[in-house]
Amino acid sequence: MIIYRGGVTEPKSRLYCTIAAYNSGLGNIARAFTGNSILKKSFDAINAKSADAVFKTLVDQLPFEESKIYLNKVNERLPYYQKVN
After folding, report:
1. 3-84 sits in which CATH class?
2. pTM (2 decimals)?
3. What does the alpha-carbon distance between residue 44 and residue 49 come to, in Å, rounded to a whole number?
4. Which of 34, 38, 56, 82 is the most exposed place for a label (fewest CB within 10 A)?
């Protein structure tokens, strides 16, 4: 996924973007940060934010309520998933 190949540099931000992209698509990640669907143009905006700010932007700006709920649920379960691994 392009989020990994030199796109989003901060690991936690990359994780949040990947989780959200799985549910809502890459174009919607870009739209959340830049207003257009070109992901490459959103990398600077994403990388300029802290991981917490990236999470907040995704929860506030994703176009689908389902995607916001999904991101929150997966994020809440991360400690459990890390234990299982």
Report:
1. mainly alpha
2. 0.89
3. 9
4. 82
